[in-house]
Design a protein that fits this description.
Elements lengths: L8 E2 L2 H6 L7 E4 L2 E4 L14 E2 L1 H13 L1 E2 L2 E2 L3 H7 L4 E5 L7 E4 L4 E5 L2 E10 L2 E8 L4 E7 L1 E2 L3 H14 L6 H25 L16 E5 L3 E6 L9 E4 L2 E4 L1 E4 L2 E3 L13 E6 L5 E6 L8 E5 L8 H7 L1 E5 L2 E7 L5 E5 L4 E8 L2 E4 L6 E5 L8 E6 L2 E6 L5
Parallel strand pairs: 2-13
Antiparallel strand pairs: 1-4, 2-3, 5-6, 7-8, 8-9, 9-10, 10-11, 11-12, 14-15, 14-22, 15-16, 16-17, 18-19, 19-20, 20-21, 21-22, 23-24, 24-25, 25-26, 26-27, 27-28, 28-29, 29-30
Length: about 400
């Protein structure tokens, strides 16, 4: 940045917020404009820079020849590599623009027959478009603090028309009807989504049964909560995102629309339960090319209490066969049925443990009083079996 003479730039919202003349982002919801919070930019591999239009213009000028104040910083060969079309991105509906390709970090396009290199950028409440016309040694940089907005494209094309001396095209007249159509379509989509909802349905469980943590090894942790006074519905939190959940139908809840925030609007969270009716999973379509991502309920309740696990140790019997439950030095339980290998007990929820290496097999410890565990209950695909604690002679 320094060789190019950048004076106003940063890579964080803190730097932007501290700037004396820093712009503030705005979002549009239909015809309603609202201020948006300064959201952290996590896409730094794609840029993630805060800067001014004057500084970005210096970058556009640099892309003409790879020089800063006459001093080469980028070889001509490297610049050619960057601006050579490599990946076809599609074709514009407007014949003046035509096909678009991606080079190395730059769009390789044409406008009314002239070669252009460009790149856009956007974030919550922001929009940018930088376009360079190498053969004319000219460029256009447009920054907006409102999104979505067609201003970047409208102004860029208007300036390029003036630079080329061609008859101006009324790009505003082209884009304005599209915006009105999009607003009408948005309202239609909302009605259609509501019409597809199965009305008159209820969650299968009391709302408190959905509360808890759910985890996935790659996608992290979803926390489902309720207010302490239980006066509200469910809330979700996931990697800095969150808010109230709306009941859609059955055991499906959806995230709210937050057009002014970085948020997955109207995303469905489907709560699933095991064969005995306990809520134990959440499925969500985080990725469009794979199946729903399933988050497993995180162990909670008595199973996480070392004192409870200590109460579980001892000998139980079923049909005359001894069953030993032991606790190791780290507080983990194991189960040994006479004549079988020892199996680890993995905390599940409440007073129930999974039997390691056996899918669908669980052990529940019955606790009739705070100081007593008097039986274990096997939950298996083929039935439920009670093993009372052995009576000491």
């Amino acid at each position: 940045m320094k060789p190019l003479g950048f004076k106003h730039f940063g890579f964080s919202i803190e730097a932007l917020g501290a700037a004396e003349d820093g712009a503030r982002p705005h979002a549009m919801d239909g015809d309603t404009r609202s201020r948006t919070p300064l959201s952290p930019i996590r896409a730094t591999p794609a840029g993630g820079i805060n800067t001014s239009v004057a500084d970005l213009a210096k970058w556009a000028r640099f892309l003409l020849d790879g020089k800063a104040d006459g001093r080469p910083l980028l070889s001509a060969q490297s610049l050619r590599e960057m601006t050579t079309p490599r990946v076809h991105m599609g074709r514009s509906e407007y014949t003046e623009i035509g096909a678009s390709h991606y080079g190395l970090g730059l769009f390789c396009e044409q406008y009314r027959g002239e070669r252009t290199i460009a790149h856009s950028g956007s974030w919550l409440g922001w929009g940018t478009l930088m376009t360079v016309v190498p053969e004319r040694r000219a460029g256009v940089v447009v920054l907006t603090n409102r999104a979505p907005s067609a201003v970047t494209s409208i102004l860029t094309c208007a300036v390029l028309d003036r630079i080329s001396g061609r008859e101006p095209i009324d790009w505003f007249a082209r884009f304005a009807p599209k915006r009105r159509q999009a607003i009408v379509q948005q309202a239609m989509d909302t009605k259609t989504r509501e019409a597809s909802r199965h009305s008159g349905t209820q969650p299968s469980h009391a709302l408190d049964d959905y509360v808890g943590g759910y985890a996935h090894p790659a996608y992290g942790h979803i926390q489902i909560t309720r207010d302490a006074d239980r006066s509200s519905g469910l809330h979700w939190q996931w990697r800095g995102l969150g808010g109230p959940l709306a009941h859609r139908h059955y055991d499906v809840f959806t995230t709210p629309e937050k057009p002014a925030e970085f948020h997955p609007d109207n995303m469905a969270l489907t709560f699933l339960y095991d064969r005995e009716g306990s809520i134990d999973r959440i499925a969500a379509q985080f990725e469009p090319l794979v199946a729903e991502i399933v988050f497993q309920r995180v162990a909670a309740g008595d199973v996480t209490d070392p004192a409870f696990r200590a109460l579980c140790t001892g000998t139980y019997t079923h049909s005359g066969r001894k069953i030993e439950v032991r606790c190791d030095a780290e507080g983990a339980l194991s189960l040994t049925i006479a004549g079988q290998p020892t199996r680890r007990l993995v905390p599940a929820d409440g007073r129930t443990f999974h039997i390691a290496q056996f899918e669908g097999f669980r052990v529940e410890f019955r606790r009739p009083s705070p100081d007593t565990v008097d039986a274990l209950i096997f939950h298996e695909p083929g039935g439920i079996f009670l093993a009372p604690r052995a009576v000491e002679p």
